[in-house]
User: Fold this.
Amino acid sequence: MRYPHLYTGVLPTSSRSRSSLVPLVRARTVSVTGRATFASAIAGDIDIEVYYSPDGTNIDTQAFGVITLTSVASTEVQASAFIVCPEHGFLQFVIRNKDATNAHSDGKVWYSIQSWDVPENTQSTGSIAKPSTGDL
Assistant:
């Protein structure tokens, strides 16, 4: 899959950015990766929260999983997680800046889904980029 970005760019202080729903069709594995370069003044972490919806309408209010990019001053940090999920339904990703004073200006989050009926070396493609939408 090429460049299926959930989030790229500036994440204001104490804010979150929410993706559109990502459909799971005979999903076998889902991975999500986050990367950020922390400035010397950054003190807060970035959380990538994963929410599930069985029908695309009713989204869970508690995260299905959370990946934390732990802030390290003046350092690029990347973390990936493999998500065990049902073969059907929808996922939604929420990126949360936990720093109350500083915006994150260099970040990226992307995902990959491998389905059961897709040849082993082929992955589904798509972009779920969406601007910040505030609270859930």
Remarks:
- The two ends are 28 Å apart (CA to CA).
